[in-house]
Amino acid sequence: MSEHDPERGGRTRQLMMGRLDRELTPEESEALDQILENNPAARQEWEQLKLVKTITAGIRLRTPPDEIWEGYMNSVYRRIERGVGWILVSIGAIVLLSYGLWSGVGELLRDTTVPWYLRGAVMSLLAGLAVIVVSVAREKFFMRKRDPYREVER
């Protein structure tokens, strides 16, 4: 299109797309009609675009049967794949966070210009977070083993 109508090619395409999506104002629609009347290449492109729109509007994706989804959701490969992915992400996050905390706390303890009560507050905060994380992890582990709804499918 642009090689036939270099100064208006982009605008013509915008008008065509606007008409396909029913977004043109009456003035824009009239301008497109004029272009299509006077430009055979634009008219040919318009016909092709309408055909593509008609074809793609009729395409529908088929939903797989429930047996296929159930088989996929219960497959060993899927469960292992997701498990391994989460393990790798967790290990990476733990290593990065541990290194950051270790470096940050080490710098804080070495810096003698920071008052003792601020250093104590940071240590208290970190100790409290550690206790909470261990407590939550222990509770989740305990509940997972005793969950009566563990076998219920969602």
Plain-language structure description:
The chain is mainly alpha-helical and about 150 residues long. It contains six helices and no strands. The radius of gyration is 32 Å and the shape is elongated.
Summarize the structure.
The protein has 154 residues and is an all-alpha fold. It has six helices and no strands.
Could you outline the blueprint of secondary structure elements for this entry?
Layout: H1 9-20, H2 26-38, H3 40-57, H4 66-74, H5 76-110, H6 116-146
Helix pairs in contact: 1-2, 1-3, 2-3
Q: Percent helix among the residues? A: over 70%
Number of strands: 0
Instruction: Pick out the low-confidence regions.
Output: 1-7
Tell me the radius of gyration: 32 Å
Mean pLDDT: 83
Count, helices:
6
Multimerization state: single chain
N-to-C terminal Cα separation, in Å?
52 Å
Write down the overall geometry.
elongated
Give the DSSP E fraction (strand runs of 2 or more residues). Answer: under 5%
Output the helix-strand order: HHHHHH
Which structural class fits the helix and strand makeup? mainly alpha
Question: Which descriptors would you attach to this protein?
Answer:
6 helices, mainly alpha, disordered N terminus, 154 residues
